[in-house]
């Protein structure tokens, strides 16, 4: 079995090795193709066909194929290249994905135009109003706000909206996008909880489509610190893709990573369960911890009791 596994693994290892060399020396494939093609042309012009012609022709075929394949594989896409980054380099990953306003919009919503970007926020706004009763007297904090996809729609409905994110680039673009909305502001996070905010500063803290991009300990740290920055009676809202739901499981098993040895992009979401979210809420000290299932999402809401504050 180990011999068979080794034979199967060799092509994948060879592809990775070739890809590594081409990433480091992108000129190799076109240079080799030009050399082989030039050599064949020289033979033709001299009307000589040495024994090495077959080898040169084979080399031309291989190098041109590798060149064409690599050109297609490395063609720029909407997702910027982040293969040089680790998952926990959150700021660097999302700064890279926010190379332009359109790229940032696509990274946070899958939409590039402003109209669709704004429409994509509507389900979250409905949930925040229905499940944590955001109202005109609330000071609201969003963790992982991106370019203010949700804040743009939520700010008119509350007293103040604060968007926070580890990505300096997202914060800059978000500030430009929400310029003119007087009760909206942005704050860059340093990526270790919420030390930027004082105790008892907000009435609502929410995470929308954000927790799945964090490692588990970082998820816990943010939920725990949310309890601290909430006022007595404050509410928390956390949503993520529920791997226990049928739709969530389909998304989980549809992972586009081609094989187990491939490196997954650092922004790839890691889905969760309601049990994980409930555990965070209970251990952080919240009361009335509830789960709301809206496949593929599971949503956790909770309250910072006045008695515990």
Q: Could you tell me the number of beta strands?
A: 7
CATH class of the largest domain: Alpha Beta
Structural class: alpha/beta
Strand proportion: 15-25%
Q: Sum up the overall morphology in one term.
A: elongated
The percent of residues in helical segments reads 40-55%
Tally of DSSP helical segments: 12
What is the CA–CA distance across the termini? 60 Å
Number of domains: 2
Tell me what the CATH architecture of the largest domain is.
3-Layer(aba) Sandwich
Which topology of the largest domain does CATH recognise?
A: Rossmann fold
Largest sheet: 7 strands, mixed
Order of helices and strands: HHHHHHHEHEHEEHEHHEE
State the fourth-level CATH superfamily of the largest domain.
Vaccinia Virus protein VP39
Textual characterization of the structure:
The protein is of the alpha/beta class and 309 residues long. 47% of the residues lie in helices and 16% in strands. It has two domains: 2-73; 90-303, Vaccinia Virus protein VP39 (Rossmann fold), CATH 3.40.50.150. The protein contains twelve helices and seven strands. It has a seven-stranded mixed sheet with strand order 3-2-1-4-5-7-6, with helices on both faces. The model is unreliable at 1-10 and 72-77 (pLDDT under 50).
């Amino acid at each position: 079995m180990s011999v068979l596994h080794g034979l199967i693994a060799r092509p994948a290892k060879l592809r990775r090795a070739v890809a590594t060399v081409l990433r480091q020396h992108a000129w190799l494939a076109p240079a080799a193709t030009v050399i082989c093609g030039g050599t064949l042309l020289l033979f033709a012009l001299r009307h000589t066909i040495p024994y090495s012609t077959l080898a040169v022709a084979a080399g031309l075929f291989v190098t041109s194929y590798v060149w064409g394949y690599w050109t297609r594989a490395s063609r720029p896409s909407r997702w910027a290249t982040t293969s040089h980054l680790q998952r926990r380099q959150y700021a660097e990953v999302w700064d890279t994905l926010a190379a332009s306003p359109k790229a940032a919009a696509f990274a946070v919503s899958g939409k590039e135009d402003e109209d669709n970007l704004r429409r994509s926020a509507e389900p979250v706004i409905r949930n925040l109003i229905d499940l944590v009763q955001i109202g005109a007297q609330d000071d609201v904090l969003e963790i992982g706000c991106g370019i203010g996809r949700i804040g743009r729609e939520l700010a008119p409905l509350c007293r103040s909206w604060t968007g926070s994110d580890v990505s300096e680039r997202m914060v800059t673009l978000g500030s430009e996008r929400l310029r003119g909305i007087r009760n909206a502001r942005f704050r860059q996070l340093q990526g270790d909880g919420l030390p930027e905010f004082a105790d008892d500063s907000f009435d609502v803290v929410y995470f929308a489509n954000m927790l799945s991009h964090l490692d588990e300990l970082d998820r816990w740290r943010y939920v725990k610190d949310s309890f601290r920055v909430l006022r007595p009676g404050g509410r928390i809202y956390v949503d993520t893709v529920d791997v226990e739901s049928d739709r969530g499981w389909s998304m989980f098993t549809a992972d586009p990573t081609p094989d187990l040895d491939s490196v997954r992009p650092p922004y790839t979401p890691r889905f969760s369960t309601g049990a994980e979210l409930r555990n965070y809420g209970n251990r952080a000290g919240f009361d009335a911890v509830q789960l709301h299932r809206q496949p593929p999402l599971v949503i956790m809401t909770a309250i910072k009791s006045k008695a515990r504050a």
